[in-house]
Amino acid sequence: MLTITDLQASVDQKEILKGINLEIKPGEVHAIMGPNGSGKSTLASVLAGREEYEVTGGSVDFEGQDLLEMSPEERAAAGIFLAFQYPVEIPGVTTINFLKTALNEIRKSRGEEPLDAAQFLKLMREKAKLVNIDDALLKRSLNEGFSGGEKKRNEIFQMAMLEPKLAILDETDSGLDIDALRIVAEGVNKLRTPERAVIVVTHYQRLLDYIVPDYVHVLYKGRIVKSGPKELALELEEKGYDWIKAEVAAL
Amino acid sequence: MSNTFNNDLKQQLVADFQANESRLNGETKTPVHQTRREAMQNFEKLGFPTIKHEEWKYSNVNSLVKQAFDFNVKTEFGSEELETLAIPNLEGNILYFINGIYNPSLSRIVSPENQLQILSFGQAVKENPSLLDDYFAKYANYQDDAFTALNTAFAHDGVVVNVPAGKVVEQPIILRFITDARTANAASQPRNLIVVGKNAEVKMAEAFRTIGENGSFTNIVTEIVIDENANVQYYKVQNETEKAYHIGTTQVSQKANSHFYAVTVTVNGGFVRNNLNIVLDGQNCEAFMYGLYFPNGKQHIDNHTLVDHAKPNSYSNELYKGVLQDKSTGVFNGKIFVRDGASKTNAYQSCRNVVLSDEASMNTKPQLEIYNDDVKCSHGTTTGKLNDEALFYMRSRGIPKAEAMTLLMYAFCEDVISEIKIEPIRAYLEGVIADKLAQK
Ligand SMILES: Nc1ncnc2c1ncn2[C@@H]1O[C@H](COP(=O)(O)OP(=O)(O)OP(=O)(O)O)[C@@H](O)[C@H]1O
Ligand SMILES: [Mg+2]
């Protein structure tokens, strides 16, 4: 589904991703962990098409298409969704209006009919229930004045609405209380099908108890320096990153 | 200050004035005409302003004053043709001005005569001279402002509107100015006087449209005199062509306990200068001023506001917002005077701009002159770009770039648009603004 080959990217001439290789197949869940500043959000942003990051080498193939040639909106239409580590506040645009525009644009690009107001509201109610998000919140300006947890929940709600093929969750668990964490995880799990895949960027094993990954990767200084089964996350939780840093230094 | 700046338009106007005068016969002795004559002398002395003039530093009328204009373009419009230029679903007292001249036969006045009296300016000189003697040119500054002097000198083509004390005019008054530049460079100088009596209430709008490929020049002055405890809503809606010059002054005088509420929206125009001058000449007045402008291409839009707090205990608040594209330029100059005796004044001002292109520019200048210690004043201006983070967020959810930009800009303007309280005008503007923002 997604094949990342030797991906390099920089911002303001500073090299951040230094050759990432990653293969994701439909149905899989990949967790990406790693110390602060190692490039996890950068990788997520590059996959979503953020223009500030300059891709200086490598390639990304998504279902046979050259992802790097596509605009962010084309990637969304192709089925890529990024849940932001820091969701953006957009005053004056309500979540409802925003999502309706987004959903219908995606439908349009797939040659599907747009949803009318009633169909949209029905779908919205259904999905809002799924992630336990309040109607009143959705009528407000997008993320404006939302609490940290509300913003994260809104990201998962949007994901549920847009039903992407590949969801990239960038620290969606941080800032969530214990109940919200479970709700968000359930939301993600409901989306899991044999056709869809998820990349979970997280610092904590906790989320992975709910969303059980097939693989765990450690990103460090712009490279994936270790990959393993889900047990790797437990090991990291216990031992921290020093032993990995030491392994890298020894090379 | 004498100005020896020589230009075609000035000479043409001086000649026109003399020709006009020779046709007036007895009317030359009236106080109105004495004022016109004085105004003409002032204009001759002042001449058109150059960019050396502090008030015209960023708005250069050089290209205007070098052109020749026909102040008498003859044109015919059928009602159906006018309909196509109208704001849809807008009901009320609709007053048509064709090339600046009030046309009663195309107009439709629906409010009863005891609520609303409307005369053409020329008619008022003959039929209600005392109203003109009391109010005409008592407020607008024809001593120092060249364009106001010029308009005053030619005052003839507008309307005089009188709302008697205690009357609430339910239907809005819509002044629709249609400039037809299909056959020539068309110019006009409407002069309006709106007198609103004690405890009266009225909503009014001035809407400007220009058609045709030639240039146009509108030099309009509207004086609005608001008596005690009266309430006036005023909208100015501009949707003219790239070749349209518009210079307009709305001069407002408020007596005690009155409310004035203005929204100025410039969707299109070549060179636009709006002066909104308000004198709060009584206690407990409230004045609100909102503005929106969307220049693109090479359009130039200049809003000058002046609030003069002459008496204590009054409140003024203004919010202007603009989105600038391409090579367009914008100016906001907001002057607030608080006079010596005007204690307990509250005056707020804010101007926010989004500049979408490196070649567009916005000049903002708040000017506070405060001669009293017991006041609350604040002002702020910002000029920035569209939020890139927000743009990426929206695009990453599937919204195409152009659409995302439109949504963001529209959200930026929303708080001013929502201040337009005549629904069909708001709906019309929402449409034309969305179209314009989506053009990129
Ligand atoms: N726009 C930018 N300008 C300058 N430096 C940047 C920019 N974006 C990211 N960086 C730098 O790139 C490096 C990687 O950042 P990134 O956000 O990808 O890390 P991360 O792994 O997501 O960290 P965290 O766990 O703290 O979220 C950091 O050193 C960061 O400061
Ligand atoms: Mg990060």
Main beta sheet of chain B: 10 strands, mixed
Strand order of the largest sheet of chain A: 6-9-10-3-11-12
Mean pLDDT score of chain B, rounded? 94
* β-sheet strand percentage of chain B: 35-45%
For the termini of chain B, the CA-CA separation is 45 Å
Task: State the shape of chain A.
Answer: globular
Which structural class do the helices and strands of chain A define? alpha/beta
- Amount of helix of chain B: 10-25%
CATH topology of chain A: Rossmann fold
**Helix/strand/pairing class of chain B, anyone?**
alpha/beta
Q: What order do the helices and strands come in, and which of them pair?
A:
The complex is a heterodimer of chains A (251) and B (440).
Chain A: E1 2-11, E2 14-24, E3 29-33, H1 40-48, E4 54-62, E5 65-66, H2 72-78, E6 80-83, E7 90-94, H3 95-109, H4 117-130, H5 135-139, E8 141-142, H6 148-162, E9 166-170, H7 178-191, E10 197-201, H8 205-210, E11 215-220, E12 223-228, H9 231-239, H10 242-250
Parallel strand pairs in A: 3-10, 3-11, 6-9, 9-10
Antiparallel strand pairs in A: 1-2, 1-4, 4-5, 7-8, 11-12
Helix pairs in contact in A: 2-3, 6-7
Chain B: H1 8-22, H2 31-46, H3 62-65, H4 79-84, E1 93-98, E2 101-108, E3 117-120, H5 121-127, H6 129-135, H7 146-153, E4 159-163, E5 173-180, E6 186-188, E7 191-196, E8 201-211, E9 216-226, E10 231-239, E11 244-254, E12 259-268, E13 271-280, E14 286-293, E15 300-309, E16 315-324, E17 329-338, E18 345-355, E19 361-370, E20 375-384, H8 388-396, H9 401-417, H10 423-438
Parallel strand pairs in B: 1-5, 4-7, 5-8, 6-9, 7-9, 8-10, 9-11, 10-12, 11-13, 12-14, 13-15, 14-16, 15-17, 16-18, 17-19, 18-20
Antiparallel strand pairs in B: 1-2, 3-4
Helix pairs in contact in B: 2-7, 8-9, 9-10
The complex binds adenosine-5'-triphosphate (ATP) and magnesium ion (MG).
Q: How would you explain this protein's 3D organization?
A:
The complex is a heterodimer of chains A (251) and B (440). Chain A is an alpha/beta fold and 251 residues long. Chain A has a single domain (2-250), classed as Rossmann fold, CATH 3.40.50. Helices cover 41% and strands 28% of the residues of chain A. In chain A, α2 packs across α3. The mean pLDDT of chain A is 93. Chain B is of the alpha/beta class and 440 residues long. Chain B has two domains: 9-281, no CATH class; 389-440, no CATH class. In chain B, the strands form two sheets. In chain B, strands 2-1-5-8-10-12-14-16-18-20 form a ten-stranded mixed β-sheet, covered by helices on one side. The longest helix of chain B is centred in the C-terminal third of the chain and has 17 residues, at 401-417. Chain B is globular and about 75 Å long. The chains are: A alpha/beta (251), B alpha/beta (440). The interface between A and B is medium-sized, with 33 and 22 residues. Adenosine-5'-triphosphate is lined by residues 11-12, 14, 16, 34, 36-42, 52, 85 of chain A.
